[in-house]
Amino acid sequence: MLIRSCILTALVFICAGPVLAQDSTAVAVPEKKVVRLAKNTFESIWLLDNQTVMVPKKGSLEMAIQHRFGKVNNGIKDFFGFFAPSNIRLGLSYVVRNNLNVGLGLTKERMQVDVNAKYALLKQTESKGVPVSVSVYGNVVIDTRDKSNFRYSVHRFSYFSQVLIARKVTDHFSVQVAPSFSWFNNVEGYVNSKGEIVNLMKNGHLAVSVMGRYKFSPKSSLVVNYDQPLTQHPSNNPHPNISFGLETTTDSHAFQVFAGNYYSIVPQSNNVYNQNDYTKGQFVIGFNITRLWAF
Fewer CB within 10 Å: C terminus or N terminus of the chain? Predict the structure, then answer.
């Protein structure tokens, strides 16, 4: 019995030894990798005549004042467009949740009211994980002029959608490309000899914009933008837009002053109806002011 007890005791220790050794071994936990996002690709939701890829943080309220003077090629008659009829847009936008910005604006031209939204799909990282930022933007615009200007109420509406793809190439240089689609429920037309209504333009319009910003100081940048129409219409084809200027910023403000061909401010109106030709010097002076509050 004594021998049997000794053998059983020895077997218990032999079996338990590896278990005890395994419990006492420290397990290495891999360190969690911190993903850093590229910051300040652009300083505002607007740059010249287009939206940027940026969506501020949740709870941010941004006010925009956008102004376009008349064409400069009228010369001293209206002091290079400064005393010509101007176009103004007042807008507010609010980030209701992470990556989602909604806004409302009123434009002097045709008293257009726009409701818009932008959502950030991807955000560029400092490492090689995500090379670009991608957002989608869209609006619905209502022409609020008197009903005598429209055959049907639905003719008041137009729509705009855009995919914004941007990259912060260096700390000083950022670039964005943005294809877009515009739609007008009503376009200009005429009645032919058969009594049929013939549109002068197509209701839908494709375009693409390319823009860039180069920071030459911590608060100041050179900015440039080009918009190219893609759709060919039966007549009244829109002209492309070239705009260039300066931007200066603070922690909560962005101020841009520039020259360009676009006058309408509302993006679908600019893309479809622009008849200012840069080859003929038909530029307008414009400025954007944005003010950001973070709550």
Answer: N
Strand segments, DSSP code E, in the chain are 46-47, 50-51, 60-71, 87-97, 100-107, 112-122, 133-143, 157-168, 173-184, 189-191, 197-199, 204-217, 220-229, 241-249, 253-260, 284-294
Q: How far apart are CA 171 and CA 216, in angstroms?
A: 10
Q: Which amino acid is at 74?
A: N
pTM here? Answer: 0.84
Q: For 196-253, what is each residue's pLDDT tens digit?
A: 667 788 999 999 999 999 999 999 999 999 999 999 998 889 999 999 999 999 988 9
Q: What's the CA gap between 30 and 36, in Å, rounded?
A: 18
Query: Does 15 map to a domain?
Result: no
Domain containing residue 112: CATH number: 2.40.160.40
> Count of domains in the chain?
1
Written as six digits, the tokens of 181 are: 């689609």
